[in-house]
Amino acid sequence: MKSNKRAKSHKNNAGTLDDEQVVTKVLEGDRNAFAVLVRRYHKQVFTLMNRFANSPTDAADLTQDAFLKAYTRLETFHPGKRFFVWLYTLSLNLARDYARKNKKHNDNLLKELGDNYGEIPTQEGRLIQQGNTIALFDALNRLPEDFREALILRYKEDFSVKVIARILNLSVSGVKMRIYRGLSKLREIYLESDHEKDI
Known about the structure:
The N and C termini lie far apart (79 Å). α4 packs across α5 and α6 crosses α9. The relative contact order is 0.09. The chain has two domains: 1-101, Orthogonal Bundle (Rna Polymerase Sigma Factor, Chain: A); 106-199, Arc Repressor Mutant, subunit A (Orthogonal Bundle). By secondary structure, the protein is mainly alpha-helical. The chain has helices spanning 2-16, 19-27, 34-53, 56-72, 83-101, 106-117, 123-129, 133-142, 145-156, 161-168, 172-198.
């Protein structure tokens, strides 16, 4: 009976630690502490995977794979960095691998970004907000993957430019340039397709 209380207390204590402290406990041999990180970030990782997989079953498998990979590579996490950024980067790489093998993810990704595109405070955002959603999806689908990915991270995931830089392994100015070019290219494709309809 006492041992159960102690185990329960141990769980509660781990739950109040910050991510880096939990990682330290896991690396020191407390494998059960990793469950704290799973509980904290399961929803975000599952949401990411479901955008790429467009299937809750596949997304659940990918989420499990992501946490398993994170657990086995935990020693590569650098103290002082944000654990979630490290985990998200690792998860995004798995999602990309899945996407390369399964091309069906585009429609869901485009819908996710399209639903929020009207909130983008730019000329491109206002222009597209007034236009045809189907044409927007088509334009997004024709964007190179690196541009589309940067736009999703910025405007759907609402990550700061600094966080996106860490996730995509780019400089801050590189991320800003990618977002700028992505928006410009999106506007160009969108206007081109809109013009083609009028001909």
